Amino acid sequence: MASTTGKRKGSTCEQGGDGDSQSGKATRSSIPDLPEDILLRIHSMLPMREAARVACVSRAFFHSWRCHPSLIFTKDTIGLKKSACGENFDHKIDRILRNHSGCLKTFNLDYNGTRGFDGTSYFDRWLQIALKPGIEELALVLSETKGKYNFPCSLLSDGVRNSLRYLRLRFCALHPTVELGPLRSLRSLYLWRVSITWNELECLLLNSLSLELLDLISCSEIECLKLPCALQRLSALSVFACDRLKVIESKAPNLSSFCLYGNWLDFSLVETLPIKELDLEQANLIRDARAKLPSLMPNIETLAIQSSSEVVDAPMLPTKFLHLKHLTITVRSGAIVSRAYDYFSLLSFLDASPSLETLILDVSQRRMVHESIFADSQLRHMPEHRHGHLKHVKISGFNSAKCVVELTCYILKNMVSLECLTLDIIFGSRCDDQGDDSWCTPMTDGFLMEIPRALLAIKTYIANKVPSKVKLTVLEPCSKCHAKGLERVLSQS
């Protein structure tokens, strides 16, 4: 076996050498004599870090490493420790890109959280290498700096625009002009804390007529969003915390999924939309959602609404959600509560949704402000309304509030197709769902103090009303995450 001719100063894949080493020759001899195009295909299917390791020890794969179609740069993929600084990050990326001689399909640079970041001196050169005809996915996730990096739209040549399918930018400035030209293949556009005005975004959208998904997060310069009918393929829109955005209009004919978080939606400005999936989060939302959504979005099938406070209970109205199958309602009370929300009024949604199959309610509250069922056990009664489709109900943050118990009893009595009722005494995520090293969502002392009463309310008022065909599941506090807190607050009470 041939001996090593000299010590290497670093990995072959980083140095850009010829891979001629004892290790490389030994590995090459063990690889079947496959055609080069098949070897290239095998190598291209490996994740980036594994592809680089193979290239470091095998001459057979060294050439294909230089042509690897997917470069995803994070601290993990390039093997940097958490304490590594931005200079090391830049140096490794620069070496790999300077030696790259092939056509990239995926270029993903995650600069988020990298220490020692001193500007954007490398970015233009890196993008010049990456943005070539054939590129399909580009993600530039940067850290917050005093001056945002100005993404060079001039690099979006005709060939690049013909192949680019996915674009994700974070902490950049993006200023497209009418001279941009059409991005014929762009399907998904994610803009997160990007400096872009509505006029600039409109220019980008009118050049992206194949767009299917638009995601805007904290784009604070956008004041209105008016989607043109030319966006024939747009099916999903998500808007989160765009503080200045006041007007949302859509003429996109196939928009079926809409998520809006942290922005006030004026329902009077919304036209009738063919939405099938809707996810909304804002204060004082539930009454308007019940009153106006059935006529504005008559085709809705999945609805999720979240409110941190409500000043008016849900009204009983004749309008219907005729196609609604999946409903999630979250009404969480914070430390300061102006009024105790009547959860029993949510049966208005049940009455209005004859096709409903799944119901998820979150009635969590940091401290008990409602009248307890143990203070007044006389339940209110509503006219019976048999519901023939609802099969699964889950209530998170279940407590001993009289209105919560009343709503649960109403469901048990009137949902004749019910198969499963789950009452979760806590709220949020549980450690069992996330792995051994995770923890359940922390609970406040006020919430922990309510847990024994909630369990007693289930035993006293709920369990004996559960039909034999219905499976009742009670999710109690976690012995690992909540036992000590429960013991502490109960000893103080």
UniProtKB/TrEMBL annotation:
Signal peptide start and end residues: none
Biased composition annotated in UniProt, kind: Basic residues: 1-10
InterPro entries: At1g61320/At1g61330-like (IPR053772), F-box-like_dom_sf (IPR036047), F-box_dom (IPR001810), LRR_At1g61320_AtMIF1 (IPR055357), LRR_dom_sf (IPR032675)
Superkingdom of source: Eukaryota
Domain F-box: 31-66
Pfam family membership, one: F-box
Biased composition (Polar residues): 20-30
Domain named At1g61320/AtMIF1 LRR: residues: 96-479
Region (Disordered): 1-31
Entry protein name: F-box domain-containing protein
Native organism taxonomy: Eukaryota, Viridiplantae, Streptophyta, Embryophyta, Tracheophyta
